[in-house]
Design the sequence.
């Protein structure tokens, strides 16, 4: 029977990084959006179960103890069977298969020249990664124990610092008013973020999302990268360009949301798109209809 180590193709002494590397390589092969071959989905689930157990120190320790107990029980049963067979044979024939059975080894094998697939990067490197290669970046961050909050906090701080610089050089705004305004905006990033992530999580679960709320927050934190990286430049431009830039950044964020939810909640691309855009339409359409009604009545 295949065990979790064999499933991932690593040895029982494999490091956490080796396990992550092996897992990532297998996911690229058997992910439902990549492989449509018969049995790929079952293999993908088996790989996930193996990684979830071996990536957690407590679960891995319990699993290792279970493997040892199973092996000891198997060896004892094998020894009893061999002794009975030997006694019944009444001859000195060499038991050629006995040692190989008694010293049976599992089909573990160690992948050669492992390189860490998930690298710990700084805030700026991570942000650039989500701009240049979002799919790979989401995969890299998926199984990090970091919740993504530290990254989001640092990006908001950098965004706010950039706005302060813009205020001094491009905007004629009273500094005390500026601090009051952007302090509220700073808090709004977190309060609004919690509301948006929670709202989206409800729809993700409706469309088959398999993970908890923490993963939805993680997707939100990383998906805001385009705005936090470039949104501070909006006050520099005139109204038309500023609106265009805001629209581009908004769609960029929605695309990242879609990719992140698909990867983190392990749902199809169609379901991820639905989980992102349907809740937006649920909010936007009533607002649009409200303004249409006011306009038709001559109120707006």
Sequence:
């Amino acid at each position: 029977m295949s065990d979790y180590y064999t499933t991932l193709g690593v040895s029982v002494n494999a490091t956490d990084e080796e396990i992550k590397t092996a897992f990532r390589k297998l996911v690229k092969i058997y992910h439902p959006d990549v492989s449509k071959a018969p049995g790929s989905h079952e293999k993908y689930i088996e790989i996930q179960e193996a990684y979830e157990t071996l990536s957690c120190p407590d679960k891995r320790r319990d699993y290792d103890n279970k493997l040892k107990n199973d092996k000891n029980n198997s060896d004892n049963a094998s020894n009893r069977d061999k002794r009975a067979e030997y006694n019944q044979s009444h001859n000195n024939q060499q038991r050629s298969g006995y040692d190989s059975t008694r010293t049976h080894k599992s089909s573990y094998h160690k992948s050669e020249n492992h390189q860490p697939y998930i690298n710990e990067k700084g805030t700026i490197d991570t942000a650039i990664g989500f701009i240049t290669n979002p799919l790979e970046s989401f995969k890299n961050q998926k199984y990090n124990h970091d919740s993504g909050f530290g990254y989001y906090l640092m990006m908001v701080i950098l965004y706010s610092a950039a706005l302060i610089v813009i205020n001094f050089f491009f905007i004629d705004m009273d500094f005390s008013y500026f601090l009051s305004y952007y302090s509220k905006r700073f808090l709004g990033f977190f309060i609004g973020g919690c509301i948006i992530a929670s709202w989206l999580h409800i729809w993700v679960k409706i469309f088959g999302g398999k993970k908890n709320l923490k993963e939805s927050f993680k997707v939100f934190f990383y998906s805001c990268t385009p705005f936090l990286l470039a949104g501070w430049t909006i006050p520099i431009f005139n109204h038309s360009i500023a609106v265009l830039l805001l629209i581009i950044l908004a769609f960029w964020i929605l695309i990242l949301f879609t990719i992140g939810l698909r990867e983190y909640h392990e749902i199809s691309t169609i379901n991820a798109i639905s989980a992102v855009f349907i809740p937006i339409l649920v909010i936007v359409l009533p607002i649009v209809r409200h303004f249409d009604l006011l306009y038709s009545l001559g109120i707006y």
Notes: Residues 123-296 form one domain.
